Amino acid sequence: MKGSRQNLAVEKHQPSSGIYSSHMPSPFDPRSICQRQVEQLGAQLPIVCAWIVYQDPKQGSRQSVVHYTQKQANSYPTLSYLEIEDRFTESLPIKTLFEVGAVGSLKAMVCLLDQYCSEPEYLLLWAYEPLSTFQQQWVQEQAQFLINYLNLCRECCRQQSEIQLLEQVVRRTEHQLRNPLALIGLYTANLCRGLPAGIMKEQALVIGETVKELSTILTDLLSCGQQEKLRVAVYDLREILSESIKGLQPWIEQKQLQFIYPDSAFTVAVDRCQIKQVFDNLLSNAVHFSPVGGTITCQWQIFRHEVLFEICDQGTGLSEEDLKQAFTAFYTRRPGGTGLGLVIAKKIILDHQGSLWVQNLPGGGAQFSFTLPRSNSLTS
Q: In whole angstroms, how large is the CA radius of gyration of the chain?
C-alpha cells in the first residue's frame, strides 16, 4: 500500500507531457518552433510554400510571418496569403484544413489557428496536389501542436510581465519596510529587557523573532529566492510546523479550530526560514477558509527518496477557476489578499527541488500537498 501511494505522489507532480517533446527548442521561441514545423511539413508533403501567421506576444499585436519554400520549386504562387486572408478568417472552423484557392496546378489550403485575434493566426499551405485524408489529419495534428505551443508562449509572457511587476513592487517597498521593522525590533528588545519572566515576555520574544524572520524574507524576496541563496541544513519539519501553528494561535483560538498532526519527528535538509514561510502561507490559507470549529489536518509520509506533506481543511474547497489560477501571481479569493502567498510558497518548494499542488477533497475542503527530496543534493 505504501509503495502504491509513493507512485501516486510521484505521478501527481510530474510535468505534463502534452505539448512538451524532446525536439522542442528552449524555452518559448515561437518563431523557431513555427519554422521547424513548416520545414517538417514541407519535407513530408507535396508542398511548394507554407506560411504560419501568428501574433508574437513579445511584439504586442505586430504580425509575424514564418515562410517556407522548397528550393527546387521553379515558380511561386502568385496569390499571396494576404489576398486570401479575408476569405477565410470569418467562415472557416478552427483546426480544420480547408482548400481555399488554386493557381494553375497549385492548391491553397489553410488551417485556422485563432480567428479571434486582432490579426488572425493561421497555417497556409500551397501544394502540388490535394492532400490525402491521412495527410490532412497529420497537418491538423501539427496545427493543434502549434495552438498549444503559441498559447503556452503567450501565457509565459504574461506571467513574465507579472513577475517583473512583482520584482518592481518588492524593490520599491523594501526600503519602506526596513525602517519600521528595525524600529519594532528595537522597541521589542527594550520590552524584553524590562519585562519580568512570564507570558508577556514570551509574546515579546515571539514578536522579536517574527521581525527577524520578516527581515530575512525581505532579503530573500529581493534575491527572488534563487537556489544558490538557500541556507540549507538538516531540520525537524515537525518543529517548524509547530512554530507556524504557534504564530497563528490567536486566530486559531478565535475560530476555535483544532489542529491534528503526527507526534513523530522527521528531518529533511531545507532552508529553515523559507520552509517556515511555506508553512505560514499554507496554514494561513487553511485557517482563513476553515469554518468556525473546524479541523485542520497535517500529515506526512516518508518514502525512500522524498517526503510527502499534506495540509487538509474543511472549508468549501476550490472552484475550477481557483484550481487553475491558485498559483498565479495576484490571483486571490481572500479579501485584502495580495495573491502572492501561494506563488511564493511554490517558488520556495521548486527551489528545494520539490513540487507543490492543490486538489479538492471528496468530502469537502481543500488539500495542499508538497514533496521534498530526502537526498542531500541541495547541500552539495
A: 28
